[in-house]
Amino acid sequence: MRNENIFDVIIVGGGPAGLSAALVLGRACRKVLVCDSNQPRNWASKQVHGFIGVDGINPRELVRKTRDQLVRLDTVTIWDNEVVNGHRWQNEFEIMTKDGRSAASRKMLLATGVTDELPPIAGAQACFGKSLFQCPSCDGWEARGKPIAIYGRGAPSYTMARALFGWSRDLVICTDGPSGLMHKQRETLDRHGILVREEPIEQFEEEGGNLRSIQFRNGEKLERSFIFFNLPSKQKSALAEGLGCEFTEELGVKTGRYESTNVPGLYVAGNLIKDVHLAIVAAAEGARAALGINKALAKEDFAVME
Ligand SMILES: Cc1cc2nc3c(=O)[nH]c(=O)nc-3n(C[C@H](O)[C@H](O)[C@H](O)COP(=O)(O)OP(=O)(O)OC[C@H]3O[C@@H](n4cnc5c(N)ncnc54)[C@H](O)[C@@H]3O)c2cc1C
């Protein structure tokens, strides 16, 4: 039986990528459904930096403002729910939400984001988003000139040190065990006065999420104000995989023109592509995917009417 909730586009994910796509598609007079489970990547963060016009805005406020603008369009519907199932059948997409609602659409956009693996150290959860970060371009300004620790091993910790050098010269790499750094990397770090501490870590000592020191298991303490880490992020949702998307070596969804995927009619936008992880880029990818979707729909509609 045909689904009664039929839309032009279903967008799964209501972060910057999904909401930006909804704005462009809603304004293009497309009937859009946005489903969002309200668990954004930056759940722990208090400020979004580097977003023009609203630098430093609270992430929840950014979403609220955008939703307020969306509900003024009678073309956009928002369901606050997780999509637990999605499939493509006879050129249409069908989804099922956790609370048992279903809907169908001609095109689908996944903007489901990624989730971060935190360092497995006591105190990490409390510090995340306050003094523990993964992106220097997002939060480096607040840590400029301050004593910073880099948590991680091998090439990722080296790359993070190189990236952070522009913000602070007071850097120590803490590898919590053997560093895995190559001789040449150690030499370069030495030349820039960047220490490498391999001692196992007991905890990140913090007060209200503000880091005070890194406490090693041997009882020593290293005073630091911020930690940046470089651990791989994971896809937040299994929908892309379930729908048959191809992935890159970094486990991002592979994209073509206008953020299309290898699955006909299925588009993606935002951090799940695993390219640039800034919110404003996620929003731009959402807008680009929306343009691609609208063009594809316009072509289909015109052809049908001819
Ligand atoms: C601590 C921290 C600080 C950051 N600071 C900054 C900063 O200052 N500036 C900056 O530019 N970037 C910052 N970022 C990165 C920023 O969070 C991301 O670039 C941005 O959130 C990506 O947007 P997105 O729309 O791709 O994904 P998200 O914002 O993660 O949104 C994805 C949405 O999809 C929903 N979803 C997932 N699966 C489903 C499903 N099956 N059904 C329904 N909904 C689903 C999720 O609940 C979520 O609401 C920070 C990240 C972290 C972790």
Task: Briefly characterize the structure.
The chain has 306 residues and is of the alpha/beta class. The protein is 27% helix and 26% strand.
Provide an overview of this structure.
There is one protein chain. With 306 residues, this protein is α/β, with parallel strands linked by helices. The protein has two domains: 6-116 and 232-305, FAD/NAD(P)-binding domain, CATH 3.50.50; 124-229, FAD/NAD(P)-binding domain. It has eight helices and 17 strands. The chain has helices at residues 16-27, 59-71, 124-127, 136-139, 154-164, 183-191, 239-242, 279-305, and strands spanning 6-12, 32-35, 76-79, 83-89, 92-97, 102-110, 114-116, 132-133, 148-151, 171-174, 195-197, 201-207, 210-216, 221-223, 226-229, 233-235, 266-268. The strands form four sheets. Strands 1, 2, 3, 4, 5, 6 and 17 form a seven-stranded mixed sheet that branches. The protein has a five-stranded parallel sheet with strand order 8-15-9-10-11, with helices on one face. Helix 2 (59-71) links the parallel strand 2 (32-35) and strand 3 (76-79). The chain is elongated and about 70 Å long. The protein starts with 5 loop residues before the first strand and ends with a helix. The mean pLDDT is 96. The structure holds flavin-adenine dinucleotide (FAD). Flavin-adenine dinucleotide binds at residues 12-18, 35-42, 44-45, 48-50, 82-83, 111-113, 116, 129, 133, 135, 138-139, 236-237, 239, 270-271, 277-280, 282.
